[in-house]
Design a protein that fits this description.
The chain is of the alpha/beta class. It folds into 2 domains: 184 residues, Glycogen Phosphorylase B (Rossmann fold, 3-Layer(aba) Sandwich); 159 residues, Rossmann fold (3-Layer(aba) Sandwich). It has 14 helices and 13 strands. Strands 3-2-1-4-5-6-7 form a 7-stranded parallel β-sheet, sandwiched between helices. Strands 10-9-8-11-12-13 form a 6-stranded parallel β-sheet, sandwiched between helices. Helix 1 crosses helix 14, helix 2 crosses helix 3 and helix 8 crosses helix 13.
Length: 383
């Protein structure tokens, strides 16, 4: 008997294929679904800087509505849903989730609507300095329950939705983010031209992520200054974002211009992860930080803030990597120094396999097309 999802039609929506973790997850899901016989239509609103577009499988149909904003996308997406009549709609990111729910209702389609939460919304929205973001957060309790199912990638995110947004527990399925582990390992061995990774050079401390407030990179840079005072090293930060000017100013003020580099977004950060001495996540909050699992998959030990949510769950309370308080440059520096001095922590050899796309995507398919539901989901396993 063929799988329940074989031949089903799935419309996936996110605003664009820019260089973020949520976008990379959607591409991974789309490619895997297509390989399993699902007819996937991947829809975006804008085409600018679609760095992950090339990673979409040729088996995935791609369409850009070229509408830009969420409001301008509502009617074109509604018309597309009426025409295509997919079995299921899957979206990610809060505004896009609102849009998918509204468009499906306006289209009067029977499509099942599944939304994927990409962050810890109480931190990302309710405590956001921007008023529009706080308003968006306050709308979640009224809009999210209208979806047929909600995927939360971590236990902390699941609890946040239930406790702070009154989402009915039966609506939520906890599924970790999928990682194409075989592809990551292949990319980790790609040639590397950066001179800092040449033989005989000081160890490299690596961070990967958008240059935005949530990543708290100023604390990482200040922690690196403390590390540098005791142990020769260099700091490489891969990513792009609105805080670049402030970060570059801080690097100059601390006299670190020759030891800190911000070269921008790298579509293959895995080759840097495979060569760095330690990977650092300094975030104030996360949803499910893919980069921690990616770094560990590349053999790089990690240091992370114990932020909501995901790091403690991924690192088994600190057993698989050092955890430090949020915003504490001294503690961050101390843990980085411990790793540089040989006190790295690693997970069991087979632990990483639970995040492989082949395992995770099956859980998604059950939510998208099957009958298995519930709040427990597939959790992260620790030996």
């Amino acid at each position: 008997m063929p799988p329940l999802w074989e031949g089903k039609q799935l419309l996936m929506y996110c605003p664009a294929l820019e260089g973020g973790g949520a976008e990379r997850v959607m591409v991974t899901l789309a490619n895997n679904f297509a390989c399993r016989g699902v007819q996937v239509l991947f829809v975006t609103a804008r085409a600018a800087e679609e760095v992950y577009r090339a990673e979409l499988s040729s088996a995935v149909e791609y369409r850009c509505l070229r509408t830009g904003s969420t409001l301008r996308t509502l009617l074109p997406l509604t018309r597309l849903l009426r025409r295509v009549r997919p079995d299921t709609v899957l979206s990610t990111l809060v505004e896009s989730n609102f849009l998918a729910i509204a468009a499906a209702r306006l289209a009067q389609t029977d499509a099942r609507v599944v939304i994927r939460e990409a962050n810890t919304p109480s931190q990302d929205l309710l405590r956001n300095p921007r008023r529009i973001k706080r308003l968006t957060g306050r709308l979640i309790p009224y809009i999210y329950p209208k979806a047929d199912a909600i995927v939360a990638s971590s236990l902390g995110m699941q609890h946040d939705l239930i406790s702070n947004f009154r989402i009915p527990p039966h609506k939520i399925r906890r599924i970790p983010n999928p990682l194409p582990l075989e592809r990551i390992r292949q990319l980790a061995h790609a040639p590397m031209q950066h001179p800092w990774f040449a033989d005989g050079q000081p160890p490299v401390i690596l961070s990967v992520g958008r240059l935005e407030r949530a990543k708290d990179l100023p604390t990482l840079i200040r922690a690196f200054a403390k590390v540098q005072a005791q142990h020769e090293a260099r700091l490489l930060i891969l990513g792009e974002g609105s805080m670049r000017p402030q970060l570059e100013t801080l690097v100059r003020e601390l006299g670190l211009s020759d030891r800190v580099a911000l070269p921008g977004f790298d579509p293959n950060p895995f080759r840097s992860m495979a060569r760095a001495r330690v990977f650092v996540l300094s975030s104030i909050y996360e949803g499910f930080p893919n980069v921690l699992v990616q770094a560990l998959a590349c053999g790089c030990p990690v240091v992370s803030t114990d932020c909501p949510s995901g790091p403690s769950e991924i690192l088994n309370g600190g057993a698989y990597g050092h955890l430090v308080p949020v915003g504490d440059a001294d503690a961050l520096a101390a843990s980085i120094l411990k790793v540089l001095q040989g006190e790295a922590r690693y997970p069991p050899a087979d632990w990483i396999e639970q995040f492989d796309e082949s395992v995770v995507c099956r859980g998604y398919l059950e939510v998208l097309f099957g009958t298995k539901q519930g709040a427990s989901g597939r959790g992260m396993c620790h030996n």
